[in-house]
Amino acid sequence: MDLERDALGIEDFKYDSAGLIPAVIQQFDSREVLMVAYMNSESLAKTLETGKTWFWSRSRSKYWMKGESSGHTQDVKEILYDCDADTLLVLVDQTGVACHTQARTCFYRRLYPSADAGTIENDEGDIPLS
Amino acid sequence: MDLERDALGIEDFKYDSAGLIPAVIQQFDSREVLMVAYMNSESLAKTLETGKTWFWSRSRSKYWMKGESSGHTQDVKEILYDCDADTLLVLVDQTGVACHTQARTCFYRRLYPSADAGTIENDEGDIPLS
Question: pLDDT tens digit string along B51-99?
Fold first, then answer.
């Protein structure tokens, strides 16, 4: 296949009926998955323009730059998209912590194996399960 | 917080209006993100029962076990959930390849930096961008 012909742009992705596409945010070097949030074409354009992650808040109906109040911004290293062009994978360098709970990653609780082990080990050390 | 009181079960997650929750599938050791698919409470229960990933296909309106036709199954190692309980992170050991295109991961195309670099390096070696 021809690379140029195959290459997709912002308007080519499969946004859902609300105009959104999920973005998996991953720390570029440790490959830790930090969070999942939603972009629309405008927030994706802002992300590309600024090199920081911008999302659309479904609950607040507004654009937000990750870290705009906390300072915990995400510098964008790479943006990949999947085979059916309906999900983004954004590799970032996370300043501070990704989660509003002050955990390094939003994925700090475990369903399986059952939670009685108490903590999850990650690159930043043990994170309490709650 | 009390671990037992905080621990969530299958019915406690925030499914969307169609009863679905996105599941990010990550190779447990390399931490490569392989794909994103959707579960409902029933497919999550099947996943926990069988130790293999089960999803709900939005396009075909049916349950499917990853690899049921290709043999490229995913052995579940760990299931995490995020701070607002509306996304799952499933760590698996992927047999063969995750993508129907035969790429190791569904995320084999790049939006940024621009695609003229031609290939993306990953653990399995270079994957053509198309």
Answer: 999 999 988 999 999 999 999 999 999 999 999 999 999 999 999 999 9
CB contact under 8 A, A24 and B33: yes
Contacts of A100 in chain B (CB under 8 A): 83
Q: Do A109 and B6 touch (CB under 8 A)?
A: yes
Test A120 with B80 for CB contact under 8 angstroms.
yes
Please state the three-class secondary structure of chain B as a single string: CCHHHHCCCHHHCCCCCCCCEEEEEEECCCCCEEEEEEECHHHHHHHHHHCECEEEECCCCEEEECCCCCCCCEEEEEEEECCCCCCEEEEEEECCCCCCCCCCCCCCEEEECCHHHCEEEECCEEEECC
- Residue B35 forms beta bridges with which residues? B25
Distance of CA A51 to the CA centre of its chain: 13
Q: How far apart are CA B56 and CA B41, in angstroms?
A: 10
For the segment A79-128, what is each residue's pLDDT rounded down to a tens digit?
999 999 999 999 999 999 999 999 999 999 999 998 554 445 554 444 54
pTM, full prediction: 0.87
Q: Which of B14, B20, B80 to mutate to test the interface with A (most CBs of A within 10 A)?
A: B80
- A129 contacts B3? CB cut-off 8 A: yes
Distance CA B122, CA B126 (A): 6
Please give the C-alpha separations between residue B60 and each of A115, B43, B55, B57, B64, in angstroms, as whole numbers.
34, 14, 11, 5, 10
Distance (Å) from the alpha carbon of B118 to chain A's nearest alpha carbon: 8
